[in-house]
Specification:
Elements (H helix, E strand, L loop, with lengths): L2 H11 L2 H9 L7 E2 H7 L2 H8 L6 E3 H8 L3 H6 L6 E3 H7 L2 H8 L6 E2 L1 H15 L3 H4 L9 E3 H7 L2 H7 L7 E2 L1 H8 L3 H8 L7 E2 H7 L2 H8 L6 E3 L6 H12 L1 H4 L12 E2 H7 L2 H8 L6 E3 H7 L3 H7 L6 E3 L8 H8 L6 E2 L5 H11 L1
Helix pairs in contact: 1-17, 2-9, 4-9, 13-14, 20-24
Length: about 350
């Protein structure tokens, strides 16, 4: 059985919440007490379990999914960047206070409506494979919200994943694993030039990742249940993205192999945080002027971002930078593509990210 099929079957059939509740609920009273949690896990293990992409960070969308609000993110995010490190979390609260964030009625126990995230965390700690099979379901509630899906991959990644031969077009046959019986109708709707297939431009011009989510969300409740078939297409695409690097990541930034690198291809290949981390050549957690102007932006931009005038930029000071800022810096002729003469430094950053 192929890896992504194993991934799909595990997600579609597993019931980790039911299996693990009695194990975390040590006395079997149907409630999870703070002491039971303190006896079973550590805060560090819980945070590692929530770090589903293993980059050492928790991002605002994950926090919102987990706690229903971003308050704790802003409370603990001292340097104003786009993520919380595990260290920031551990310095800001202890395991008991972490428990309290889930204990909405503050009675010292997690009832069934409050405990599913804690059970998800415990299950992931006990079974590391669950971190892969439950990666899309960021809060472990057994359903995929629009926020979870939009935070997991982009429309560009969706298109590349569903274009196995890399020709820049989607046939009905290629799209059928994602859309099933609805495939022909979707192609007919988006096929502006009526050639029987969809170009990337037709997909991007006619819909969005949010629009694709709505196609799967038949009842319009904003969620895709993992206990029904409505999440099957999303799970299939995500499985391809995560388990077949030859399709999505193996070709490097130039995903379509045309000899030019577009912003969409860079967006698929790396995040801005990964690019900045790669530009930090001496791994000292900041960029000096030489590193910044070599790979990221102009000296003028460096000076503007250096708020404390210490001659270096922390990642917090650079948190407003986006991938298009980086891309445009290297796109010397402004044509929207990086040719061979413009792409060498971007390729260097990509190689550092993938190393």
């Amino acid at each position: 059985m192929t890896p992504f099929l194993l991934f799909f079957v595990a997600l579609a059939t597993a019931s980790p919440m039911r299996r693990q509740t009695m194990m975390l609920d040590a006395n079997g009273d149907g409630m999870i007490s703070k002491q039971e949690v303190l006896n079973a896990i550590t805060l560090h293990d819980a945070l590692v379990a929530l770090d589903i992409d293993n980059d050492g960070f928790l991002y605002l969308p994950q926090i919102v999914e987990l706690f229903g609000t971003g308050d704790i993110f802003y409370q603990l995010n001292n340097n104003g960047d786009d993520h919380l490190t595990i260290g920031e979390f551990q310095h800001g609260l202890n395991l008991g206070e972490f428990f309290d964030l889930f204990d909405k009625n503050a009675d010292g126990f997690l009832d069934m409506s409050e405990s599913y995230q804690m059970n998800y965390i415990y299950n992931t700690i006990q079974n590391p494979d669950a971190a892969i099979t439950n990666a899309l379901d960021a809060n472990g509630d057994g359903k995929l919200s629009k926020l979870e899906v939009l935070g997991a991959f982009t429309l560009d990644e969706f298109m590349v994943a569903m274009d196995p031969n890399g020709d820049g077009f989607h046939t009905v046959q290629e799209l059928t694993p994602a859309f099933g019986a609805d495939t022909q109708a979707i192609v007919n709707l988006l096929d502006a030039d009526m050639d029987g297939q969809l170009s990337y431009d037709e997909v991007k011009g006619g819909t969005s990742l949010e629009g694709i989510f709505d196609i799967y969300d038949v009842n319009g409740d904003g969620y895709l249940s993992l206990n029904t078939t409505e999440a099957d297409g999303i799970l299939y695409v995500y499985g391809v993205i995560k388990t077949d690097p030859n399709i999505v990541q193996g070709m490097g930034p130039d995903a379509d192999g045309d000899g030019w690198i577009s912003l969409a291809e860079v967006d698929i290949a790396m995040t801005m945080h990964q690019a900045l981390d790669a530009a930090d050549l001496d791994d000292d957690n900041h960029l000096d002027a030489q590193e910044f102007t070599m790979y990221v932006g102009t000296q003028l931009l460096f000076n503007r971002l250096d708020h404390n005038n210490d001659g270096i930029l922390s990642f917090g000071e650079m948190h407003t930078l986006r991938l298009d800022d980086l891309f445009n810096y290297h796109d010397i002729n402004g044509d929207g593509f990086l040719d061979a003469s413009e792409s060498d430094k971007m390729m260097f950053l990509y190689d550092r990210v993938m190393a």
